[in-house]
Amino acid sequence: MSTRLAINRLRDREPLDDEAVDRFITRYGSPIVEGERATFLWRGHADEARVRHRVVGLPDPLPLAPLPGTDLWFVTTVLPAGSRVEYQIEVRRGEAWEQFNDPLNPRLAHSPLGSSSVCASHGYQVPDWVSFDPEARPGTIVEDSIRSKALRREQPISVYLPARFNRALRYPLLVVHDGTDYLGFAAMRTVLDNLIHRLDVDPLVAVFVPPGDRLREYANHAPHARFIARELVPLLTERLPLVDAPEARCLMGSSFGGIASLSTAVRYPGYFGSLLLQSASLVFTDIGFAHGGGPAFDPVVSFVNRYRAKPTAVVERIYQSCGVYEPLITPNRSMVPVFRQTGMQVRYTEARDGHNWENWRDRLGDGLSWLFPGPQKFVYE
C-alpha cells in the first residue's frame, strides 16, 4: 500500500488531463483524509482560491495552490485523529471574492448563520444516539408562552415531556438557553428520546427558552436571571410534576448561553443544583481591561473578573466542555480550577472541534448522563 498522498500520486500521472482529474475527484471527493493529513480540493478557474475556517492553530485562510496544467486547486494540512472541522471555499476573480460550501463535499453542518462544509478526520464518529431510533419512544414538545414581568414581554417556551410522562411521578428540570437552536441544530429532542430510552439518562422535563436580545440578556442580565429563577421555574413547578428541590434543577447553555446559565446561578446561589456549560464565553482579564471581544463582551468580562476575584459555590456540580480549536479554550481551561476550589464538583471535557452546534451536540450524551444518570449509567459507573 502506497504511503504517498493521493494528490502527489495525481501530480505524477501522465497524461494529467481533465479525464484524469475527473476520475480522481470521483474516487476521492473532498477533502481527502489520509492518516493525519487532510487535502482540500476545489475545481474551477479563479485568480485566487483558499479555505476559510475558524480553527485556532491553523492559518486562516489556507491558500489553495493550482495543480499545474489543470483547473484543480489543493492544499494539504495536518488534522489530528478525532478532529472535526467546519469550513468553506473562498475564491477571487478580479476584485470580487465569493465564499461558498465545498461543492465536492456533500457533508454539511447547520447553524443560525447558515451552513458549512465538514471535514472529519479518522477517529471522529457521529454518536449513534444522535440519529432517530425507531425503537425509542418519542417525547412530546408542548409550545407555550409566559408573560414575564422581569423581561416585560411575552416569552415563548417549548416544554419537552419524556415518553410515558406520568403525573403521578416527579421529574427533574433542565432549563436550556438558546432552546430553539438546541432543538434545531443539536437534534436535542432526538438526543433526549434516545438517551432516556437507553437508560443512560433519567426521564426529565426540559424547557427550551429562546432569547430576546441575546447579547444583552445573556451577559449577566438581572432581569433575565429573575425571569428564570423567579418566574419560569416556579410556574413550571406549579403546572408540572417536578421535583421541587435544587438538586433536580439544571441550567445549560453554550457560548453566551453558558454565561447566562452561570450568572443566573451566581445571582440565585443554591437554587439550582447543576450547570451544563458548553464553550461558555468565560472571557476575563488578569490585568487591564483590554479583552479583544468587542463591546458585547464588556459586561461578560466584568462579571467573570468579579467571580474569579471571589469565587463561590453556587451549584453542586458543573459539566463543562469546550473545543480545542476555538479561541475560548484557554479561558475555559482556566476556569476549571477556579470552580473546583469552591468545592463544586466539575467534570471537564475537550474535543478536537470548534465553536459550533455539532460539537455541543456530541457532548450532550456525556454531560446529561453525568448530571441526570439513568439506571444504565449506575450499572457501569
From TrEMBL:
<dbReference type="InterPro" id="IPR050583">
    <property type="entry name" value="Mycobacterial_A85_antigen"/>
</dbReference>
<dbReference type="InterPro" id="IPR029058">
    <property type="entry name" value="AB_hydrolase_fold"/>
</dbReference>
<dbReference type="GO" id="GO:0005975">
    <property type="term" value="P:carbohydrate metabolic process"/>
</dbReference>
<dbReference type="InterPro" id="IPR000801">
    <property type="entry name" value="Esterase-like"/>
</dbReference>
<protein>
    <submittedName>
        <fullName>Esterase</fullName>
    </submittedName>
</protein>
<dbReference type="Pfam" id="PF00756">
    <property type="entry name" value="Esterase"/>
</dbReference>
<dbReference type="InterPro" id="IPR014756">
    <property type="entry name" value="Ig_E-set"/>
</dbReference>
<dbReference type="InterPro" id="IPR013783">
    <property type="entry name" value="Ig-like_fold"/>
</dbReference>
